[in-house]
Amino acid sequence: MATSGGVDRDHDQSLGPKLAFFTLHAGLVIVCIWLAFGRFDWADPLRAKVLAGCALLYFLRHVLTLFVLLKRRVEMSEVFGLTVFMAVFEIGFLLLGAGALSDTATPFRWLDWVGIAMVIIGSFLNSGSEIQRWHWKKKPTSKGKCYTEGLFAYSMHINYFGDSVLFCGWAILAASLFAWPVPIFIIASFVWFHIPALDAYLAKRYGKDFEIYAAKTAKFVPFLY
After folding, report:
1. pLDDT tens for residues 75-117?
2. What is the distance between the alpha carbons of residues 219 and 148, in angstroms, rounded to a whole number?
3. pLDDT by residue (tens digit) across 144-163?
4. Which site from 140, 197, 198, 213 is most exposed, i.e. has the minimal number of CB atoms within 10 Å?
5. pLDDT for residue 100
6. Which of 6, 156, 9, 133 is nearest to 82 (CA)?
7. Rounded CA gap, 155 and 83, in Å?
8. What confidence category does residue 2 fall into, taking pLDDT thresholds of 50, 70 and 90?
């Protein structure tokens, strides 16, 4: 079994686990919408609605990934583990932003618009880069080759960088220091766990082509690292 970064990279439809993941994630988003638009007397109802919108956007991207872009095997243990983690930031961020702990509203400021822009840009970098790679892999001439084009020409792991930008923007919108352990954990897991493991897998699979690509391309942050 080929593994990399804590996941099984063998190709498999995994329709059952994917449907379960879709159902569980849909349930989380429904809860977010209910919390944001239901009859709750939140201190900051506007921020709650914005955060529900973030959860909905993330869910739509997740559906695209599950049923179009993702070709590897998905295990039920991964489904349940990630669903719990998603509940932490989707519902948790909404409650923080709504003022469930502070019982105060945080005025919408320029920094929140930066947060919204980061959520949108991060989503584009992640899903956009994956769509570009998906289209490229469908070409018969691409079989067995290492993908180095599109957004991946600027960063070997531009998809991970995109999610890092997304979660930092999401934490800004939550308007609470209690939200920041999530993006910090995600970035740390990318840099010290997922990226090294995936690089080892890609180096073994593509050999010299990957070495050339790695030598001339930023690993994580475009133009910097």
Report:
1. 999 999 999 999 999 999 999 999 999 999 999 999 999 999 9
2. 12
3. 899 999 999 999 999 999 99
4. 140
5. 96
6. 6
7. 28
8. very low
What span, in angstroms and rounded, lies between the C-alpha atoms of 94 and 87? 10
The two tokens of residue 70 are 């993702």
Separation of alpha carbons 143 and 225, rounded Å:
29
- Give the distance, in angstroms, between the CA of residue 153 and the centroid of all CA atoms in the same chain: 20
Q: What integer pLDDT is reported at residue 5 of this predicted model?
A: 55
Answer yes or no: is pLDDT of 72 > 90.
no
Q: Per-residue DSSP letters for the chain?
A: --EETTEE-SB---HHHHHHHHHHHHHHHHHHHHHHHSS---S-HHHHHHHHHHHHHHHHHHHHIIIII--B---HHHHHHHHHHHHHHHHHHHHHHHTTTT--PPPP-HHHHHHHHHHHHHHIIIIIHHHHHHHHHTSGGGTT-----GGGGT-TTHHHHHHHHHHHHHHHHHTSGGGTHHHHHHHHHIIIIIHHHHHHHHHHHHTHHHHHHHHHS-SSSTTT-
